[in-house]
Write a structure and sequence with these properties.
six-stranded parallel β-sheet, four-stranded antiparallel β-sheet, globular, binds zinc ion
């Protein structure tokens, strides 16, 4: 029975990944939230000792939400309440497994325990959902088991992930710090600019911060200069957590839009062909609609609405209905 269940779940995830969005001609779905040209994630591993006291306040200063990937047996008791607070403020606290073993060397049952237990412990101590996985040593394996607990997983193959990733359980990241060639603000900026050129998703893999003894440290002063650059260019960069961007991709690529039109009133019903029992697919997706002929402006009850260039742009969530009033 268990095998059949796993097979069905994986089949469902696969069909979600290959589903094609179905939308009327008047609509465009934003590749990334807010029609930004690329997506950026800061993904911090191992909870090195300066991540909570130094890095998080710095990211907060620039309004950036990050993913903290924790090894549950490495978290000190006094760090759990801090992680809970950080999760409540919108950062992601997610799984870097229980024991930080090379997952490729584990049996299927050992692998499953690492997935299941880390998810259970993180959810229990933070009160937030835990839906993404970071493989220790970038060693992916048993993806069909990962898919029972997570919607996506991160590796570190040092490339910009394309608009639609080939494999949600093998998402690339770019290692930074002294063990890499990404240390200065300019070197960080070059990678995110490359993300814009490729219209893709740039995930930075961060360990140590300053002199905290963590692996491959980066200087917080260089990180800050880089964050200032990113914050100045929201049209280029949508910065969000690994989970948010994973959800956006799943929803965007399986979004359905139906509309009914009565004189100057349009009713828009949004749904998503991808379904997963692991999480609510409720990440806002940005769409736009051409204004109908004879309609110079419009109003909507949807969030973040902007009317410009003969279009109305707004955020939608699958399962909801929106109204547009043309004038
Ligand atoms: Zn690690």
């Amino acid at each position: 029975m268990k095998k059949i269940h796993t097979f069905l779940l994986v089949a469902a995830m696969l069909s979600a990944a290959t589903a094609v969005a179905q939308i009327p001609n008047e609509y465009t779905i934003a590749p990334w939230h807010g029609f930004s040209e690329s997506a950026v994630t800061y993904s911090l591993d191992d909870l090195t000792s300066n991540q909570l006291p130094v890095a998080i306040p710095l990211f907060d200063k620039y309004g950036v939400k990050v993913s903290l990937n924790v090894v549950t047996t490495w978290v000190k008791p006094d760090e759990w309440p801090k992680l809970k607070a950080v999760a409540k403020s919108g950062h992601e606290v997610t799984s870097h497994t229980v024991n930080h073993k090379n997952m490729a060397q584990l049996s299927a049952s050992e692998f499953e325990l690492e997935c299941k237990e880390s998810k259970r412990i993180i959810t229990q101590y933070t009160g937030a959902e835990c839906i993404t996985l970071v493989y220790p040593y970038c060693a992916s394996a048993h993806k069909e088991i990962s898919a029972k607990y997570y919607i996506s997983a991160r590796c570190c193959s040092k490339h910009i992930e394309p608009h639609t990733p080939a494999d949600m359980f093998d998402i690339s990241s770019v290692g930074v710090g002294t063990e890499s060639d990404v240390n200065t603000a300019e070197e960080f900026n070059k990678w995110v600019d490359d993300g814009v050129a490729q219209k893709g998703w740039c995930t930075f893999l961060i360990h140590g911060i300053d002199d905290d003894g963590g692996y491959s440290p980066i200087k917080s002063s260089e990180l800050e200069k880089h964050l200032a650059y990113v914050a100045k260019n929201p049209q280029k960069f949508w910065v969000a957590t690994f989970a948010q961007i994973s959800k956006y991709i799943i929803e965007r690529d399986a979004l359905t839009i139906r509309e009914t039109k009565k004189s100057n009133k349009i009713t828009v019903t949004v749904d998503c062909k991808a379904k997963t029992p692991l999480t609510a697919l409720d990440e806002p997706v940005t769409i736009s609609r051409q204004l109908p002929q004879g309609c110079s402006t419009a109003k909507t009850n949807a969030k973040n609405a902007v009317v410009s260039g003969g279009k109305i742009t707004f955020d939608v969530v699958p399962g909801k209905t929106y109204k547009i009033n043309c004038k």
